[in-house]
Amino acid sequence: MSGEDVWIIGAAMTKIGRYSDRDVIDLGSEGALEALRDASLTIRDIDILAVGNACESNTSVAQRIQKQIGQTGIPAYNVFNACASGATAIRTVIMAVKSGEADIGLAIGAEQMVKTSRHEIAGARRDITAFTPRGRYGPVLSGDGMLDVEPTPGVFAPAAMAYASKYGVTREQFAMVAEKNHRNSARNPYAQCRRVFSLDEILAADDIAYPNTVPMCSPPGDGAAALIIVSTARLAGIDPDVRRRAVKISASVLTTDPSTHDGQAQPDINTLTRQAAGWAYELAGVGPEDLDLVELHDYVASAELLHYDDLGLCKPGRAGELIESGSVDRDGHTPVNVSGGLLSKGHPTGATGVANIYEIVAHLRGEAGDRQIDGAKVGLAHVVGLGSACSVHILEKATK
Amino acid sequence: MPERVAEQHIAASATSPEPERSKPFTIVHSTSAAVKTPDVLAIVCLDGGGVVNARLVDIEPDPAQLRAHLPVELTTWVVGTDADGTDAVTFGFQPKKEGCP
């Protein structure tokens, strides 16, 4: 990373779940106040705020959270980048700190997911009584003729099938990802779903979009996570007990889709991750073999296998063999999604990119409880927001 | 009353002399639209360049029988009809039939 290093000195997340009695402001405020407490700071110490959110991103979530945690007049940024919103909020704060404009920043990801079920949406479609042409081409339904081909499981599934047909990955290998992540979630008190599933149960469950069944898809959950980020100069003046637990941000990268042939049909979820990973490894001066743990964007189980390949965790085309080898299990060489991943930890869209980094920070500090990866020194967090945006962060334990 | 068909933008050309080919697919079991499930969603490579994400119609949603590189051709179908009898038409691809151009 060019310029001075930046550090995480406070990190917190709420348990992810379905909070019918709380809103995005309650959740975001809880995460923010916990992160401030973790860093032994108050909102008066913060120079900049950025909040990642998806469902309410046009409602000034950052300013509404300020009304709960303290309106100090600092610049606040409302960040939307689909599933990468939280990670992009972190990057916004990092850029402000690296530029010298701020010494300490607060990044929050917070989400209260829409409660409308897909059955209600389908009912609304059926209730249309008059088709009226709209817009440039005059369609009477949204989707420009491509009726309902855009929901996310329908993007990650064909992408996985392309990989499977090219390299011979089996449906069982895709399901093994879900088996692993659900097994891991049993150790994570922050996870929405902590139930362990057998491989047979996963394969026999209802299909959502082939090859993914229900336990192979991430549940929508509500929750928040927050980080306090400081410059190297400011770190020196921080409470020594807090400084001792600081985690270095060795790389922070954000990419979008370069133009690719298949990108005309649907987001190309591979190329932007490959580019982000390549840049992040170069900036951090580490390689995939150096990673002690990885939190990646398992929106559906089949996506995780593609990300193994794109992040360089296996040789090209060998992702199916990697999951079978046990190397990505929590006792393997490169544990992946020891938090339970999105599949069981839950996926509050705007919070996910911050929660992934919270998980890495907890392990690098040696504070991850039952799920701790012993001796973890280097970790990578990855998210993909369809549209698309990919963020990769590499974090390292402080050496002194 | 005569039936009126509302225009829908169709992103694929039907004039290609060669059959389009489907690449990766998925079978969708749950969707927000008023379409019957399970149905097959595929990335279709158009002859002469371009790719499009669309439904495959007139095909068995059986993963054991579906395969990549299946030759397909453009077709249209009615998604729904409003109170005035206006149809909403969308496009899809069906397995290539012998004898079609």
Low-confidence stretches of chain A: none
Helix amount of chain B: under 10%
User: Rg of chain A to the nearest angstrom?
Assistant: 21 Å
Q: Tell me the number of strands of chain A.
A: 11
- If you average the pLDDT of chain A, what whole number results? 92
Structural category of chain A:
alpha/beta
Report low-confidence residues of chain B grouped into runs of 5 or more. 1-19
The major pleated sheet of chain A works out as: 9 strands, mixed
Order of SSEs of chain A, N→C? EHEHEHEHHHHEEEHHEHEHHHHEE
Q: How many separate helices of chain B? A: 0
- Which assembly state applies to the chains in this document? heterodimer
Question: Helix segment count of chain A?
Answer: 14
Tell me what portion of residues of chain B adopts beta-strand conformation: 35-45%
Q: In what order do the strands lie side by side in the largest sheet of chain B?
A: 2-3-4-6-5
Describe the fold and architecture.
The complex is a heterodimer of chains A (400) and B (101). Chain A is α/β, with parallel strands linked by helices. Chain A has helices at residues 24-38, 61-69, 85-98, 118-126, 153-167, 171-185, 199-204, 232-235, 240-243, 271-284, 301-310, 319-325, 341-345, 349-364; strands spanning 6-13, 48-52, 76-79, 104-111, 207-209, 212-213, 223-231, 247-256, 293-295, 378-385, 389-397. In chain A, the strands form two sheets. Chain A has a nine-stranded mixed beta sheet with strand order 3-2-4-7-1-8-11-10-9, with helices on both faces. In chain A, strands 5-6 form a two-stranded antiparallel ribbon. Chain A starts with 5 loop residues before the first strand and ends with a strand. The model of chain A has no long low-confidence stretch (mean pLDDT 92). Chain B has strands at residues 5-6, 20-28, 39-45, 51-56, 70-81, 87-95.
